[in-house]
Amino acid sequence: MHHPDLILLNARFLDPVDGGSGPHTALAATDGVITALGDDREVGALAGARTVVVDLKGAVVTPGLVDGHMHPVHGTELTAGLDLSRCTDLEDVRVALARAARELAPGAWLHAWGLDPNVFGERPVEAAALSPVLDGIPALLQLFDAHSTLASPRALELAGVDGPRTFDQAAEIVCDAAGRPTGLLLEDAACELVERPAPQPTRAERRERLARTLREMSASGLTGGHAMDANGDSLELYEELDEAGELAVRLRVAPWCQPGADADAVERLVQLQARGGELWRVDGVKLFMDGTIDNGTAWLEHPDCHGESTHAFWPDPDAYTEVIGALHRAGVPTATHAIGDAAVRHTLDSVAKARAGAPGDVRHRVEHIETVPDDTVRRFADLGVIASMQPTHCCDFTRADHSDNWSRRLGEERAGRAWRCRDLWDTGATVVLGSDWPIAPYPPLSVLAGARHRRPSRDLALPPHGPEQALTGMEALRAMTVNAAYAAGEERTAGRIAVGFRADLTAFAVDPVAAPATELPDVPVQLTVLGGRVTHRAAAV
Length: 541
Prior knowledge:
The chain is of the alpha/beta class. It has 18 helices and 25 strands.
């Protein structure tokens, strides 16, 4: 007799398809798959000498939570610096930077992340606002959107950046009227110019940091994530950790396709599909249709209040459409970063054209969808395009009174269409939730909570932004389990608690659907199971 690898006893199981707790109190998993559900006596009797048996003492078990949009390698590298995400004004930023600067060795670079443009108020985002704290110090301060960086004068000097440049994508070295860089760099092509001369961690350091990050993600309740990049040696790092048994989160990876990609580049992306191991695989391609509203690089149907956000990330949007068509014909799913209304519309138009030319079940996605009109909302369900959204961006980076940078740039009408999760859900679209870590924290309970309360996590007493767009507790859970599995083409094997489904499971001290949304982030994660293997176990169990 082949005994189970894992048995869970004294549990309450919450299957999001059934919509509630079933009659079972015990579960068995063998070779990474759920093989039995029943009561403690009958399932417990299946145990063998090597079976891991866990008494969950009444904990609530859901399918393993999956972050629908994350950047594990990039996030691990980025968050190795100074965290500015809790700074609420310029004085907070100056104090934090000054403290970090005092600890630097002579000539060392200062790296920081999470800088919120709202701290600048009505002032432009420029390095001069942080003088004299950064005088003489090479510093790179990543803004929270990870699409823009503020570089100190010394960093610009070391990089040889002394004026504007032309790029193949919508990137910019922001300069003053005299042509001198202000320190603000928009999009990767510009940011990379100043990142290159900065010292980099060793590969061994990066590998260990990544392994630690994934372990911490597992402890937060995550069993999976859709990794939206494969830059540098990311795939090799995943491969090494997987083979060493150190990959604590299952990853579905979508490498980038940048503007200028020719037919050979697209074919290389096609050939990369299905590369992977036991717990990771390449499945899809990530593209960008625009940048961000906060730094003026989104693509809007009408300019923002500064006359910005008027262009696509691809200088020739029709070239993007052709790439989507080529990937669709090859059966490759795509995920397109599209934040502004014009970017989302063009992405949907491109998918519609691709489907008309080659019908088939290729699952395309749009990432972020921060502001769109009614006619665009309806098209997601009509086209079968998945809506991948990050509710904590709305919670923590905008305000109900529209006094924040994002809302001021858009104006009242468009700011009132913020993160339309409810509207998309009600039209029948498949909504997937994620964090976009490191843009926002990855703990999935915070993502589930934000989808429900839409309030700033730093002060839950503040009013919600667009409360009519909130999801219910069960809908939010579906968006990080069943819907995430559907987006990955795994709806027959993952995202449910049922015999024959993958044994990726998360156990909580209380029911995460019934718990008040504002209390949800503090609910203890009792157990995380990945492929039938316990990757996190709280002391209480």
